[in-house]
Specification:
5-stranded mixed sheet, 12 strands, 7-stranded mixed sheet, 44% helix, 417 residues, Cytochrome Bc1 Complex, Chain A, domain 1, alpha+beta, 2 domains, single chain, globular
């Protein structure tokens, strides 16, 4: 067992490889606790697409000593919160409790994690639930278009596959496939227990050691590879909607590329908030859309930049043309000094304000450990942003905002193309 302390953040690695990270914040009365595993949709074979997300559901359905109701009630009866989420590269099971309930929170999460029954009858019920969730997404074009965009952009890469799976793959999942998947990927070196709040790190380590210290095994190493854009676009007619919902963007930078910081600045100015160029030009000045903006995603071996909007069919092309015109404007003229300075200030403020919440801190520590095997100090992140120059902006803009590089995905009452 090894322990490392930096910036009031303690990190302990158990002898089997499970990592425990926490920050003690004595002035709050709560604890945000997350049990993370570095397994997500990118780890799934084609026949079991959606299994990571389905396991997330099943871990709430009862263990050897608790029913599904008892799992929920044990936390909620104390005024706490229990939840989970699945991503492309990680899955998190989390609680928010009062400081006095740390032992209970660890016990609940680790019990779910290790002792879930995966009852076949319960599985069949939950399959119907997840299939309804899939249908809900298909009925919500403003949600569906983002998944479709990544599928079109990265057609042959594991990151392009939807987290939720399909009705066909979810229906075919078995108890054996769940047990096998968890035995393969839910292994100590991929597990991080992260916490922030009014807690004692050594107590947390002892609780985790008792619950997870006897785990063994090692997951196969991920085959990371750059995700090349497909170069294709897709327009999907969807007649039962009033708007065209679209995503337009291209492959950008991974978590390991320093250019991701420059892209965050560029994104902030282009469409990251209400004062951004696209929001002001398309919504405020012209009234062509209610929703218009941009965002970035970063993964271990790839990332992307995307503009999302929703507009009427008759103004769809105009909105696209205005967006591409703004891309070209930035490529030719860059950002103003005021825009660059303001974007740095906004990002710094958002980062610092985000750390006011214990859940945000807990998430940051786990995400950083899983990707970098260390917690990146806030000061280091801010230095990366402060060092960005207009030349950096120009280099990134020329790559990411090139008209020829864009992949377009659109859903709505439009012609197929």
């Amino acid at each position: 067992m090894t322990k490392h302390t930096s910036e009031n953040i303690d990190i302990t690695t158990l002898s089997n490889g499970v990592r425990v990270v926490s920050e003690t914040v004595p002035h709050v009365q709560s604890i945000s606790l997350g049990l993370w595993v570095g397994a997500g949709s990118r780890d799934e074979a084609p026949a079991i697409r959606g299994i990571s997300h389905f396991i997330e559901h099943m871990l709430f359905k009862g263990t050897q000593k608790r029913s599904a109701w008892e799992i929920a009630d044990s936390i909620e009866a104390r005024g706490g919160h229990l939840n989970a989420f699945t991503g492309k590269e990680a899955t998190c099971y989390e609680t928010r409790t009062l400081a006095d309930d740390l032992e209970l929170a660890v016990d609940i999460l680790t019990d779910m994690f290790r002792n879930s029954l995966h009852d076949p009858e319960e599985m069949e019920r939950e399959k119907r639930v997840v299939i309804e969730e899939i249908k809900m997404y298909e009925d919500t074009p403003e949600e569906q278009v983002h998944d479709l965009y990544e599928q079109i952009l990265w057609k042959t890469h594991p990151l392009g596959k939807p987290i939720i799976g399909s009705e066909k793959t979810v229906s075919s999942l078995t108890r054996d496939s769940i047990v096998e998947y968890m035995a393969t990927f839910y292994t100590p070196e991929r597990i991080v227990v992260s916490a922030a709040g009014n807690l004692d790190h050594d107590q947390l380590v002892k609780l985790v050691e008792n619950a997870l210290g006897d785990m063994s095994g090692k997951a196969p190493k991920r085959a990371l590879k750059p995700a090349k854009p497909s170069g294709k676009s897709k327009r999907v007619p969807k007649r039962d909607t009033e708007q065209v919902h679209f995503c337009m963007g291209t492959t950008a930078y991974s978590k390991y590329q320093k250019e991701r910081f420059t892209l965050s600045i560029l994104n902030n100015v282009l469409g990251g908030n209400m004062s951004s160029r696209l929001f002001q030009e398309i919504r405020e000045k012209r009234g062509l859309a209610y929703s218009i903006g941009s965002y970035t995603r970063t993964y271990l071996d790839a990332g992307h930049f995307c503009v999302y909007g929703g507009t009427s069919p008759e103004t769809f092309q105009q909105v696209l043309d205005l967006t591409l015109a703004e891309f070209e404007n930035v490529r030719k003229n860059g950002l103003t000094e005021d825009e660059l300075t303001k974007a740095k200030t906004q990002i710094r403020g958002a980062l610092v304000l985000g750390l006011e919440g214990m859940s945000s801190r807990m998430n940051r520590y786990a995400d950083s450990l899983l990707a970098f095997d260390r917690v990146i100090p806030v000061s280091e992140v801010l230095e990366s942003y402060n060092a960005i120059t207009h030349a950096n902006i120009g280099e990134v803009a020329n790559k990411v905002l090139s008209t020829e590089a864009q992949t377009l995905t659109a859903l709505g009452p439009i012609s197929r193309a």
